[in-house]
Amino acid sequence: MKRYSSSSSSNSRPVSVLCVLALLLAIVAAHSHVTDQSSEIIDHIISKNYLKFARHVDELKSSGEFEQMFDSSSSDGSIDVQLVDGHLPGYDCQHDNIMQTRKIVKPKDNKDMLPRKHYDRLNKQHDDELVQETNANVGPIRINFDTTFLHSKKDPMGCYSTGQKVTFGNGGRGINCSLASEPNCIYTCQANEIFTDALGNLIEQVILPTIRDVFSAFLSVNRVDGNLVLTDTYADRECDNNYRIPDYYFEKGIANTDIVMFITARPTFSSATIATALACSFPIYNNNFFGRPYAAGINFNPYYFKPLLNNPNQFLFKEYIRVGLHEATHALGFSRIFYDSFLNPSTGQKYGYSPSYSFTDSAPTPSGPVSVTRSGIRTPNVVNFVREHYDCASLQHQLLEDAGGQGTAGSHWEKRTVGEEYMLGYVQPVFPITGLTLALLADSGWYAINNTYVEPLMWGRKLGCSWFAGCTATSWSATGYFANSIKDSCTPTRVGKGTVRVYSYDKDLAPEYRHFDNATIGGADYAADYCPYSDVTPNFRQNAYCVDEANQRIASKSIGEYYGSDSRCFEYTSLGSSSQACWKYQCTADKKLQILVKSTWVTCLPGSSPTVDGIAVQCPKNFYICDFNVIPIPGLGNLTMPVDSASSVSSSATLILLSLLSLFSLFILI
Ligand SMILES: *[C@@H]1O[C@H](CO)[C@@H](O)[C@H](O)[C@H]1NC(C)=O
Ligand SMILES: *[C@@H]1O[C@H](CO)[C@@H](O)[C@H](O)[C@H]1NC(C)=O
Ligand SMILES: *[C@@H]1O[C@H](CO)[C@@H](O)[C@H](O)[C@H]1NC(C)=O
Ligand SMILES: *[C@@H]1O[C@H](CO)[C@@H](O)[C@H](O)[C@H]1NC(C)=O
Ligand SMILES: [Zn+2]
């Protein structure tokens, strides 16, 4: 197999992270010249856990205990997972499809369900009834993982032997079970999906603690006072299909917990689904107004997680962890079912408007503007973030992804405007946890954010209102964003050498997706509204992630290339021809970009072209890696937090997989 040029998400933290809270803006100035090394705080947490895992595997191997502890070969033989050269394939998050079909069952009698305090308040029938109480017991979120179902090996939907028949979801009522072998979503377990103790140990001892460490680093909640007791009147008390929550959660409850996550490792009805997570217990007030999630289910598809056991690999590990963080973030509240239940953190009350909304947008096309219905998030910290990030003071929202369900508010950011972030619906190797998603979590009113852990969003940074409005050759003229035909280029965020892929489709694109005179021509990525941009495609032309140190093997010595977390892609010309190179960069104290070309550090002022040994570097004009500022989100101590103790849920579990938009097939690359 050819080498994979893609990196882990890991190495992608371009700039440093600034330690600053909203109340301490002054600190920004003091820290704003930063270099790469302090930028990987989340990665450090992940790496620490990876190293523990790798050491543990080594010890077990040398003591001969590996087989029994981790090796899954006893039940599997070889593991044949279709990773793309050792990395996760891009995948479509199924969260929205699954949520679409979950009917929230409102308890018959709220009075019995809500803690007394709520009941008294809710009874008043005024809009300000849900006023939060200030200065509660705020602290880092305590996530408790319940893995008993995992280890019991009695999950009716888990695979314990090859050839065993299991049911997907709710047994096929409305689901497109294209993977199933028999009607009603009956599926035959394959060898590489068998749950083993080794897989259970990996999930329980490594994956889950890492997810917990990362969230407790940047998320705080108003902690549950005393035991977390779930009060659920839903008859089956299920968290996911066939996952019955043990009775003691509804009786005595559990101590030191702000949210409990029930873990399973079942095959999923979409082969590309690596993990899924759903909130399954949260207070339900009148008018379908919900409180913060207190319980969630997370499923890890064994098919994807087993390769990690056979081949511990740090990059792959980081990708998996970030997929887990993505899914868990849905469960914490980044889900369309929760938007209308968000509480304004600065008042502690309901927003006076719907936090997510649909509106008529105007898409620029070669034949003039076209009206299109879009949806977006318009809460204060999100709006503040987008105005500063894109340098466009008139922005009213951040867009939500429309691919896969037009006009409906989904649970992912729009790929065209957000590009590279961990809450996109299509996961790729570089997916930072940025201030945008943290702003949304803050705007739920349920969480306080420690901004120390913000990873920079580089996509679209400071490119202005017209860039945000839509892609045209002019508005998207910055490096990496637009080309009329297939073209090699640094990617927009310069994490890699990529290619702008422009396709000719077999029919006209929808009017709002036309960016060329010829209506059949469009960019390769429908999630990005067919806007052409440069991305890194494995095994394609010279594509490679600069941030993946494993690529050092292909570094060109003649131009002094370097691959690693502090490398970025730059265009250059030499001997009359133009190309891209991965070079190490650093930032000076006065925020100037410097690049190490061969063994010379050159200062790269925007638009200049310093020359080293006949290599003329084209210094980027719109690349703000050296003056990244954390966009403040009110942090700890400046939030009113809800004081709900755990309350009820309702989860019904009718899964109907929406049929995805039928996509155009493509036939030529132009
Ligand atoms: C079910 O999904 C498969 C694969 O995505 C697709 O080819 C098929 O047309 C779908 N069937 C229906 C009835 O939607
Ligand atoms: C935020 O996290 C940093 C790094 O762990 C820590 O030093 C700081 O005290 C935290 N801030 C607050 C307000 O807890
Ligand atoms: C659009 O482009 C396709 C593919 O290059 C070509 O076959 C077709 O004739 C073009 N249509 C027009 C109207 O130019
Ligand atoms: C909290 O932040 C808001 C801005 O988001 C600010 O107006 C307010 O003064 C802050 N509260 C405190 C106590 O500083
Ligand atoms: Zn998702």
Features:
about 675 residues; alpha+beta; Elastase, domain 1; Leishmanolysin, domain 3; six-stranded antiparallel sheet; four-stranded mixed sheet; disordered C terminus; binds zinc ion
Question: What can you tell me about this protein's structure?
Answer:
The protein is an alpha+beta fold and 670 residues long. Among the domains are: 40-159 and 193-341, Elastase, domain 1 (Roll), CATH 3.10.170.20; 471-537, Leishmanolysin, domain 3 (Ribbon), CATH 2.10.55.10. 20% of the residues lie in helices and 19% in strands. The strands form ten sheets. Strands 28-27-26-25-30-29 form a six-stranded antiparallel sheet, with no helix packed on it. β27 and β28 (600-603) form a beta hairpin. α2 (41-62) runs antiparallel to α9 (197-218). The longest helix is centred in the first third of the chain and has 22 residues, at 41-62. The chain is globular, with a radius of gyration of 25 Å. The two termini are 27 Å apart. The relative contact order is 0.17. Mean pLDDT is 78; it is low at 1-39, 68-83, 107-135 and 640-670. Bound molecules: 2-acetamido-2-deoxy-beta-D-glucopyranose (NAG) (4 copies) and zinc ion (ZN). One 2-acetamido-2-deoxy-beta-D-glucopyranose binds at residues 504, 518, 520-521, 670.
